[in-house]
Design a protein that fits this description.
It is found in: Membrane. This is ABC transporter permease. It is a multi-pass membrane protein. Its main location: membrane. By secondary structure, the chain is mostly helical. Helix content is 77%, strand content 0%. The longest helix has 31 residues.
Length: 238
């Protein structure tokens, strides 16, 4: 049942034009643009600094923004309510959506990493395992937040809030601009957000080849657990 549900959700996501725009086209455009065009000062090789930010953006786009919008409109059109009336348990409904997110992120990561290698990206081998762990934790944190948002308010509100948060976290959440370069307390706030924790952890793992440390891992775990616990109490099926 889990395999059938997650594969269905993944196929629907891959057929959705807005999902593909968020999940693949925008990250690919940023990866190529920031690597080849010197619009932002970055250390050489530029691609090494760009890849962690783009991977963090891809995870946020698929697991949070795309998930929240899809879940919100599925509730609006009664899809979730009809699924809940079948033999599919509620926990499996949520697990299927999260498993589909993992599948989508796996596709994203494969495409982006292949393109980055073509742009002469050579990541340190010592950091690859940590990067995989951070991506999985990022999927859990952002996926839980996406379900919380998409299952708590009306679809039109979800659409506006999810896209607004995407832009805010992209530029002020430690993704495009590292937390250390953000002015004043914004840097401290960014490192406590899942976007900043994921991006900073990936930079440490994929640029320096070192363990990301306890802070980004704890931040992602805490956000995932809190969002999941709140979702259990607040998510509605209609």
């Amino acid at each position: 049942m889990l395999a059938a549900q997650s594969s269905t959700e993944l196929r629907l996501a891959l057929r959705n034009g807005e999902q593909l725009l968020l999940a693949l086209l925008i990250p690919i455009a940023l990866l190529v643009g920031l690597t080849l065009l010197e619009v932002v000062p970055l250390p050489e090789p530029r691609v090494a600094s760009v890849v962690p930010a783009v991977l963090a953006l891809a995870v946020m786009s698929a697991a949070f923004t795309g998930q929240a919008i899809a879940f919100g409109f599925d509730r609006r059109y009664g899809v979730v309510r009809r699924l809940a009336a079948t033999a599919l348990p509620r926990w499996l409904l949520v697990a299927g959506r999260l498993a589909a997110v993992l599948g989508l992120v796996a596709v994203q990561t494969a495409v982006l990493c292949a393109l980055a290698v073509a742009l002469d990206w050579r990541p340190p081998a010592a950091g690859l395992g940590w990067a995989v762990l951070l991506v999985l934790l990022g999927c859990a944190a952002f996926g839980s937040l996406g379900i919380l948002l998409g299952g708590s308010v009306r679809a039109e509100v979800v659409l506006a809030v999810a896209n607004l948060l995407w832009f805010v976290l992209l530029f002020a959440g430690g993704i495009v601009i590292p937390a250390a370069q953000l002015p004043g307390p914004l840097g401290t706030i960014a490192t406590s957000l899942p976007s900043g924790a994921l991006a900073e952890g990936l930079r440490t793992a994929l640029v320096d080849g070192r363990a990301p440390g306890l802070h980004p891992v704890l931040v992602l775990v805490i956000w995932a657990v809190l969002a999941a616990l709140v979702s259990v109490r607040t998510v509605r099926l209609r």
